[in-house]
Amino acid sequence: MQGINDDDTSSRRQGVGRPRVIKEKRRWKLPRLVKQNPRQTVAQLTAQYNADPSASVSEHTIQRTLLDMGLCSRRPTGVPLLTKLHHQLRLLLAREHRDWTMDEWKRVAWSDESRFLIHDVDGRVRVRRLPGEQLLPSCTESHTQTGGGGIMLRGTFSWVVLGPIAVVEHTMKAANYLNIVADQLHPYMAFVFPTGKGIFQHGNASCHKARIVLEWFEEHTDEFHLISCPPNSPYLNPMEHIWDVMERQLRA
Fold first, then answer.
1. An example of a Gene Ontology BP annotation on this entry (predicted)?
2. Which residue in 6, 17, 130, 142 has a CA-CA distance of 20 to 30 Å to 252?
């Protein structure tokens, strides 16, 4: 039989199958159009591609070629909105600490707050069902009346050891933050850096900069020092990686 070789294994004959509408020599044009404006729709990309008099392809062909090249449509990645001042403060932080050694960075205790949704319902989950099956267990998603059933946590860690995790019962205000600092952060810094050479990464939220909080830190400058990250710069805080691991484990 044709298509079966001597080793009884199937093989595809050379040249069998429909040829590609977009030849290899012209496929390079699509990535270039996408890079010019990644937010273009398939219809817009098709119109631009067909602007060449020698080209005439359908939207379906463009869509299939984009997928074949790995140029899938994805949601934009959310990032903080940065102003000119934010950029300047980031640059200032980098210049101030560009000569720090690894041993100096090991003396920093990083901290941050993060909210976790216990029952996460974001509206993007879909099910396929027949009419009347909307209340079947396989077609429902449990959630709380307030929407998420979330919990706010504040954590600390350093190169030496993970620090305490505090549950924030209510909205984080200056008094709540000061209680966490005095009851949990202070003993942690004294244990990890007993010689007083520790450095605590301080946040920029309004509760972090309250007068009673700053006065408390001023009274304990002989026990540890402060370092501040610029506003709207969560990715400069490695504590975000720990939150990410916890979030993925929660969703697993």
1. DNA integration
2. 130
